[in-house]
Amino acid sequence: MESVHHVSTTSKILFSKVRKIVPPMLEKFHKGQLGRVAVIGGCADYTGAPYFSAMASARLGCDMSHVLCERSAAPVIKGYSPNLMVHPLLPSRDTINGHVSFDAPTLAAPIVDMLSRLHALVIGPGLGRDEVTLKIVAEVIREARSRSIPFVLDADGLLIVTENPNLIKGYKDCILTPNVVEFGRLAKALGVKVSSPAEIAKSGGNDVTNKESDACEQLSQALGGVTILQKGPHDVISNGATSIISDTKGGLKRSGGQGDTLTGSLGTFLAWRLAYHDKLWDSGEKDNEKEAQSKEDVQAELESEDMRMSPATTLLLAAWAGSSITRECSRRAFKAKGRSMQASDLTDEVHHAFLELIGEPEGSKTHL
């Protein structure tokens, strides 16, 4: 197999292109236009993950952050922050009183009814493995895809895909964020024979990054070009044709919950990307009639100073930006807290990381 085509553009140029899809702060915008993002997850055992994800989304700059969770989790998550809108809409075996049979589309209806109000979904943080919950979320994924709503899948949201890859196969508006174990499960489920990251690292040599990218590319291709962000010492992002390596320096503490800052950040970037393509503001770019299909097309869009980018390019940029923001948050939090660093410390660094790496776009009115 031919080696994956790495985007050769420097990080500085990539960040300048990411800035193009960030809405400027303008007086003409009204509430909700700069992002309505919902995190679907949260159960009795896991309430921190959806909170950290939704708060990262909010701190990065989306207007409205929702959490759609299981009933028992709602009071707890509400207690964490009054800034989040928390909806106890996610059914579980307990909420249907243990009934063996149930109608998944009917139980999913209250969540589906909310989809028209949302720009992007983050599915998986704190979701748990309740069989009823997972079937209802599968219905939501199916409906979101039919409406072309972009979404991020993480944690137990990835388990749904592992059991039914056709739910997302070929859907170009989603990002999967597997860790090493989750990546292996997905590869096995799809019959993709790739070396594990541990095996690749052990093999050594100068082509470790190429081997990691090849594995990510193969898995993406097996899913019909779905964008995959494989988390690791550096993050590998691939849509099956083009890959980008995210190697912004992070912290050395591997505390739980750091991936939730990633998913929340991705949710906001997906919402902003939608606003960019809807031309919510004048970016000063010329319309591009050609949809990026190849590495060369993406490269041309990234190197152009005045060409409007196509969805394939902006999705890669959104994934890369979310990864970079999270890694910078981790670095800053570790610098401040050392080995005592926790997930909440990353939340406090999101805005600072954004300003450091990306900065406000031209035209933003940040001082009144």
From TrEMBL:
GO terms for molecular function: ATP binding; ATP-dependent NAD(P)H-hydrate dehydratase activity. Residues 285-298 have a biased composition (Basic and acidic residues). Its main location: cytoplasm. It holds the Pfam family Carb_kinase. Residues 14-357 form the YjeF C-terminal domain. Gene3D superfamilies: 3.40.1190.20. Its cofactor is Mg(2+). Residues 285-307 are annotated as: Disordered. It catalyses: (6S)-NADPHX + ATP = ADP + phosphate + NADPH + H(+); (6S)-NADHX + ATP = ADP + phosphate + NADH + H(+). One of its GO terms (cellular component) is cytoplasm. Its EC number is 4.2.1.93. It is found in: Cytoplasm. GO terms for biological process: metabolite repair; nicotinamide nucleotide metabolic process. It is an enzyme of class 4 (lyase). Keywords: ATP-binding, Cytoplasm, Lyase, NAD, NADP, Nucleotide-binding, Phosphoprotein. (6S)-NADPHX binds at residues 126, 179-185, 260. PANTHER family: ATP-DEPENDENT (S)-NAD(P)H-HYDRATE DEHYDRATASE, ATP-DEPENDENT (S)-NAD(P)H-HYDRATE DEHYDRATASE FAMILY MEMBER. HAMAP family: NADHX_dehydratase. Catalyzes the dehydration of the S-form of NAD(P)HX at the expense of ATP, which is converted to ADP. Together with NAD(P)HX epimerase, which catalyzes the epimerization of the S- and R-forms, the enzyme allows the repair of both epimers of NAD(P)HX, a damaged form of NAD(P)H that is a result of enzymatic or heat-dependent hydration. Belongs to the NnrD/CARKD family. This is ATP-dependent (S)-NAD(P)H-hydrate dehydratase. It comes from Penicillium antarcticum. The lineage of its organism: Eukaryota, Fungi, Dikarya, Ascomycota, Pezizomycotina.
